[in-house]
Amino acid sequence: MGYRRTAVIKLDTPDGADPLLRETVEQFKHCANTASEWCWHGDDGYHVISKAKAERALYDRLRDETDLTANFVQKGIRRAVEAVKSGVERLKRGENTSKPYFSADSAVYDKRSATFHHDHVSLSTVDGRVECEYILPDDSKTPPTKYVSDEDSEFRMAHLQYRDGDWYLHASMRKVEDDETSESASKHRTVLGVDLGINNIAVTSTGQFWSADEFNHWRRKYENRRGSLQQCGSRHAHENIECVGRKEYGRFEIDMHTVANELIEEAVENECSHIVFEGLTHIRRTSPRRRGTTSGRSDASTSTSITRPRNTAWKSFRLTLATHPSGVI
Fold first, then answer.
1. Which terminal CB of the chain, N or C, has fewer other CB atoms within 10 Å?
2. In this structure, is residue 186 part of a structural domain?
3. Segments of the chain with pLDDT less than 50
């Protein structure tokens, strides 16, 4: 059995550390706001909510523009993508929202950019690392001392924040109580549940989702293109239909490959040992056909399948998951 807590820890920063931490936070915010600007508009007028796509477009540029480590740049980009995802969901609900902007003096640290101890932390900055002691209450039963001093509690990640002239670490901690037998523990492995749907390509049990808006946009575009070519009836038109089909397959194969990799990344980040998909057996035969889709499904059902571009592209999706070196599926 285990549970998570957030410990707010005040830091005692050594001489010379403050300007380094400030510059690190400023450059982290630059990465997040640059990514937010790009993701909100995209390169084709669509919101970008794919971490992999955003990283491909911005990573090299932001590495050149900042002195941050690779991990920090990735964290800044991903933070922006998550904020854009939330904004897109609000827009879908008809709520007013705008492009996310990060103004708070905050940066995200994980075990690659920080080394957490029970009395101090080593933080990566734009110029090496700085070690900061924790300022904790003397009473061992008072939070956050209660959590930090507990040998069974493990640091997972943290937000470094600057406010009122002081630095604070908002540390996410997990405590595991090993009161179960190994046999019992094996029955309660941490799994990432994945639901494949229509409006979203995939939705995970951690709350992450991959929208199908852009996917369906291109699917309709390719269908309309093939339809107009079929009306021509010429040999040249027939050859162009085959060309459109190859382009469609290539685009969707890349999309499926990207989603598969991001699902694995989500599982690894949440320390899931397995990825569990909904049961899709016989869904095409048992679900009623819905207008405007190529495969039948029921809106009320929790087991739905994505409108698949081609069987080969979908096989690429499954192959990526099955052969990934993380071994989580």
1. N
2. no
3. 1, 180-188, 280-312, 325-329
CA distances from 62 to 26, 70, 81, 224 (A): 13, 9, 15, 38
- Note whether 176 and 212 are same-domain residues: no
Mark whether 28 and 123 lie in a shared domain.
Answer: yes
Using alpha carbons only, give the angle 271, 274, 275 rounded to the nearest 5 degrees: 105
Which pLDDT score, from 0 to 100, does residue 314 have?
Answer: 52
Residue the block writes with tokens 């998951």: 321
Beta pairing, strands 200-204 & 191-196? antiparallel
Residues 16 and 151 in one domain: yes
Single residue among 156, 180, 204 that ends a domain in this structure: 180
Give the pLDDT of residue 302. 33
- Position 30 scores a pLDDT of 96
For the chain, percent helix, then strand, then coil, each to nearest 5?
45, 20, 35
pLDDT score of 296: 35
Considering the domain architecture, whether residues 174 and 213 belong to the same structural domain is answered as no
Contacts of 75 (CB under 8 A, 6+ apart): 28, 31, 107, 108, 110, 113
- Asked if residues 135 and 12 have their Cβ atoms less than 8 Å apart, the reply is yes
Residues 53 and 111 in one domain: yes
Owning domain of residue 57: 1-180
Same domain membership, residue 91 and residue 207: no
Closest CA to 301 of 271, 278, 327, 325: 278
How high is the pLDDT of residue 51? 86
Distance CA 108, CA 89 (A): 23
Tell me if 44 is assigned to some domain: yes
**Which of 151, 180, 209 is the C-terminal boundary of a domain?**
180
The C-alpha atoms of residue 328 and residue 267 are separated, in whole angstroms, by 7
Coil, strand or helix: which one is 17? Answer: helix
